[in-house]
Amino acid sequence: MAKVILTIIGYILLYIFEFTDLKLERNIKKIIVFSFFYLIAFTLSLLISLNIKIPSPAIVIKNYFFK
Amino acid sequence: MKETISVRQAIFTMTMFIIGSSVIITSGVDAKGDLWIAISIALIAALIITWFYSKILSIKPNNDIVDILEMIFGKFFGRLLSFFLIFFSFHLGALVLRNFGEFIKTIGLPETPNSILMLICILLAIISVKSGIETIARGCELFLLILLFLLLLTIPFSIPEMDINNLRPMLYEGIMPVLKGAFATFSFPFAETIVFLFVLPSINKKQYYKVYYTSLIFAGSILIILALRNVLILGPETSTRNYFSSYTAVSRINIANFFQRIESIVAISFLIYTFAKISICLYASSKGLSKILGFNDYRFLVTPIGLLMLNFAIIVYENIMQMVEWATEIWPYYSLPFEVFLPLFIYFYYVIFKRRKMKK
Lengths: 67, 360
Known about the structure:
Structural class of chain A: mainly alpha
Radius of gyration of chain B: 20 Å
Largest sheet of chain B: 2 strands, antiparallel
Largest sheet of chain A: none
Helix content of chain B: over 70%
Helix content of chain A: over 70%
Order of helices and strands of chain A: HHH
Number of helices of chain B: 12
Number of helices of chain A: 3
Number of strands of chain A: 0
Oligomer: heterodimer
Distance between the termini of chain B: 30 Å
Strand order of the largest sheet of chain B: 1-2
Shape of chain A: flat
Strand content of chain B: under 5%
Order of helices and strands of chain B: HHHHHHHHHEEHHH
Distance between the termini of chain A: 39 Å
């Protein structure tokens, strides 16, 4: 559980830290693109910290193309 | 603001990049004792393919590769092709990050979770990329000579452990394993320099060939020397079966029971090489992606891309066996379309269909 909480807190802190820079530029497109990729990264990290097994692309490539 | 680096800095950066993770994981293990021949063959092949890379960059010097591809293929297909290159550098960065994590975990910190080691490395890489390619290049310029000195220092000290009979008989199993090893070495450190299509447009002179050729020959000869050292110390079987053969070879050094255990210094130098490689891959992918999405500044994308790279590195393999299997057996074939076919396609398409129109 500590892992999950630490992940969430870390991501929120880093987001605030990055957002202060982006806010000054007032570029809404940049903020949207940034938040989009950040959200994907956050979701993946959350799943990893919850011990959910995510299928690895490397293994998929190996099984489909090199068998 | 456009960042510029000098030709010398670019050469040093590329040398760091090529030595990068190939000092940690030995590629071309099929060649066994003849690894140095395999590396030489791979070097010649890499010199040929990098000629095309520099030709692509010289189509429109000092312009980004994304711009060049858009000029040749139009907006949609140009961006699609650059997306492949960006994905390649992203994937490469993640794999190198994983190598970094596994290396530290295996040699020094077996109880620490892999993700923490990689998190620290990627945070450092994010900071260095955010401060720009100039900073990375200056760092490489500073570190390369010190690290090379450390790496080459191990050779005279390991002479007592060496046995020239480890190199004999040459070509015992015929030429085929050597060629297979050459293919693996070609795709693992040498042709990965395609990532530099994103970096080299920022050098201050148009000497792309010089950068590619000097650093390839420089780094290639270092890799040949290191491969010879490993085989001479460990023998063909042990040096190819070991996960981290360079590290193992250095750990054998023992002079008069006094000068020993210097592998920790060497391990630190390996980590700095790998860190440089990760930073360059992160730089290339965030710069390319921001260009595709229509931004001039790449810095705001570095953090999310870096974190994605970290997540990808965590989920990509389950253990070190999978990592080594992928790196030695599948990576050569997987990377071939990105490293060889794609640049050849771009160049010949340009020469056949577009050159006359664009010259006008």
